[in-house]
């Protein structure tokens, strides 16, 4: 594959995985949790580096995943203390991210870890960091990791589709049916953390947040059926990746930033043209006689 194809494929994998997960975040009214986790994983990455002195490998993934779970736990704990969820997210997000930034500034030194990299990623360098996979050949490491994450996401969503659906719409009903709501919550947060971590190094925090929230919000405008919403959200994520790449190359700007911008364009189109909730649908509805 060409250099361009690897970048588009990798970004599309991010859009597909984040798009699927994002639907449940939107339905659970936890969109800002995506923003929190996508930033607080920086702390886990920094701590993993301080322990192992390596800037790649499974230690980075484990450290960031633990930080994501810690974020979810602390938010849930503060919420149990009668602190509003959005306030709890803001407290945990800013505190843990600030600790990560301070550690980078004071303890990392010359290692390839910086705040700009954390926010915007390094998607242009993805094709050069490769691994050899039996029967497949040489592929970028980020592409292989994101492919594995997508497989995990799809398997988990299919395996627990009924549980995700019920706990998202009516946690009280789920508890009455014997579904372990708290366990499903943390299992879902683990999935969010893994998806975020896998995407973080390649595309940065800004695009992760955009891909987790905006395609799902766009899909929500088009349909009320969960299965269709998941398919639409993943598709919008892929379209945003492709469109964003060509916007970036056309005006010579940030690829990740342009992909995030493309998610906004798709939302704008959905907001205007959606037949169910769009602006145009309001004008198309017949006015009843008084």
UniProtKB/TrEMBL annotation:
The keyword Transmembrane applies. One of its GO terms (cellular component) is ATP-binding cassette (ABC) transporter complex. Keywords: Cell membrane, Membrane, Transmembrane, Transmembrane helix, Transport. InterPro entries: ABC_BtuC-like, ABC_TroCD. Pfam families: ABC-3. One of its GO terms (biological process) is transmembrane transport. This is Iron ABC transporter. It comes from Halalkalibacillus sediminis.
């Amino acid at each position: 594959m060409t250099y361009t194809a690897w970048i588009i494929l990798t970004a599309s994998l991010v859009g597909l995985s984040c798009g699927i997960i994002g639907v449940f975040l939107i339905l659970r009214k936890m969109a800002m949790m995506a923003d929190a986790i996508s930033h607080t994983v920086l702390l886990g990455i920094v701590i993993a580096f301080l322990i192992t002195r390596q800037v790649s490998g499974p230690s980075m993934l484990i450290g960031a995943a633990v930080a994501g779970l810690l974020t979810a736990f602390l938010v849930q704990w503060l919420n149990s203390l009668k602190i509003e969820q959005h306030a709890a997210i803001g407290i945990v997000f800013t505190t843990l991210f600030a600790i990560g930034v301070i550690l980078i500034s004071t303890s990392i030194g010359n290692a390839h870890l910086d705040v700009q990299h954390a926010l915007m990623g390094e998607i242009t360098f993805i094709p050069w960091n490769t691994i050899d996979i039996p029967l497949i050949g040489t592929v970028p490491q980020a592409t292989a990791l994101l492919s594995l994450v997508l497989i995990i996401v799809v398997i988990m969503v299919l395996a627990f589709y009924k549980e995700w659906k019920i706990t998202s719409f009516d946690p009280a009903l789920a508890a009455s049916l014997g579904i372990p709501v708290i366990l499903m919550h943390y299992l879902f947060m683990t999935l969010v953390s893994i998806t975020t971590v896998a995407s973080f190094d390649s595309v940065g925090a800004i695009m992760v947040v955009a891909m987790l929230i905006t395609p799902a919000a766009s899909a929500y405008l088009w349909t009320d059926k969960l299965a269709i919403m998941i398919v639409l959200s993943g598709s919008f994520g892929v379209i945003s990746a492709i469109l964003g790449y060509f916007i970036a190359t056309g005006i010579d700007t940030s690829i990740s930033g342009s992909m995030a911008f493309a998610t906004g364009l798709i939302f704008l189109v959905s907001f205007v043209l959606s037949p169910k909730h769009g602006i145009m649908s309001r004008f198309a509805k017949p006015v009843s006689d008084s």
